[in-house]
Amino acid sequence: MTKDHDRFYVVKIFDNEYPSLFDIYKYSIMICELLQAFDYNNSIINVLDARDCNIVALAKAINFVHFRQCMSITMEGYKMRIKEFHFITPSKAIDTLVTMFKQVLSPKLSQRIHVHKNLDTLYEYVPKEICPKDFGGNEKSIKEPNDNLMDVLTSKEFTKYFNESISKKTNEEYRSVYEFNEQCMDMPGSFRRLTLD
Questions:
Q1: Would the pLDDT of 189 be above 60?
Q2: Whole-angstrom distance between the N-terminal and C-terminal Cα of the chain?
Q3: Please, what is the Cα angle at 23 between 94 and 154, to 5 degrees?
Q4: Any idea where the CRAL-TRIO domain is (predicted)?
Q5: Stretch 27-44: mean pLDDT, rounded?
Q6: N or C: the chain end with fewer CB closer than 10 Å?
């Protein structure tokens, strides 16, 4: 966590270790549920460490339509605020990947994408002391918090909470049966009978 209460989130990708899209979806939803229930942050700083992977193979593995849907669920469904995206890789192919990301992200989010050839330029955005040891910082290595996170996500308490959370749904019996009247400020009802939800 930064001094501004931004959560620093690191994803490290290794060559030829690309999980299935469904697993990424499920993992992202579980993280969002965990953050919403137990974390108090202002926004998320995402860092993708792609120094040990083939960027071209990574671009082929990503389905950008599904990525857009995942971002929509994260930002609109869970109201997660993304402060910045950081890509760390010396590969020149990253420009192609960033261009593809910008096509599925809003213009506001597209401006928050930063590419770093090395860790020195990352420190201009993220304080070095909160970076993991893998990045030359003072915090634990990436593996230790990841193992702790997996322990929490697979615990009985969180599994029970998660299952209860995903079983919740709207009761359609309470949905208004009145049609919207666009001439009356998009509110259902009429001047004789006005229904406000």
A1: no
A2: 38
A3: 125
A4: 23-143
A5: 89
A6: C
| Residue 136 backbone dihedrals phi, psi, to 5 degrees | 85, 15
Residue 101, burial from CB neighbour count under 10 angstroms (0-12, 13-18, 19+): buried
Confidence band, pLDDT 50/70/90 cuts, at residue 180: low
Q: Nearest to residue 126, comparing CAs of 83, 187, 81, 182?
A: 83
Residues 110 and 98: their CA atoms lie apart, in Å, by 9
- Where residue 117 falls among pLDDT bands split at 50, 70, 90? very high
Contact 47, 88 (CB under 8 A): yes
Show the 3-state SS of the chain.
CCCCCEEEEEEEEECCCCCCHHHHHHHHHHHHHHHHHHCCCCEEEEEEEEEECCHHHHHHHCCHHHHHHHHHHHHHHCCCCEEEEEEECCCCCHHHHHHHHHHHCCHHHHCCEEEECCHHHHCCCCCHHHCEHHHCCCECCCHHHHHHHHHHHCCHHHHHHHHHHHHCCCCHHHCCCCCEEHHHCCEEECCCCECCC
- Assess contact for 57 and 89: CB atoms under 8 A: no
State mean pLDDT over 45-73. Answer: 86
| Cβ proximity of 26 and 70 under 8 Å | no
Distance between CA atoms of residues 26 and 45, nearest Å: 20
